[in-house]
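Subject: sequence -> structure tokens, single chain

Hey, anyone have a minute? Need the predicted structure for the following. Not urgent.
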Amino acid sequence: MITQKARYALRALAALAQVDPGEPMMISDIAEQQTIPKKFLEQILLELKHQGIVASRRGKQGGYLLLKPADEITYGEILRIIDGPIAPLPCLSITAYRKCDDCDGEQTCEIRHVFAKVADATRKVLFSTTIADTAALPAGAEITRLLA
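Reply:
Had a minute. Here:
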């Protein structure tokens, strides 16, 4: 399962994707629109800023905006930033590989072979689904409709 922090990050990015490119959105507006606690949202957006996903502007016309187009920001990228490795087993992680503690050999591990299929399918969906894809959904639509 993904964390609440990741869900909030994805919802905040979808909100930013719905405004005109280059136009900032105030954090209070994002928090209210997406029902996200403002203090928690500040932490999330700061992390996304450090990773080059969003930028912030100060002043009267300030707020947060996407640093790159929404169709170039994938769910997989955001989940890795917020939650870390996506793989169900450490031996299947692309970014944080490590041998399982009780491993007798990856080539003969039945569990690894099954979960390798799961990891591949999951990555395929997460890295082919962008913030633009989900921002275009009508309000209240479920992501499963998009991926069905």
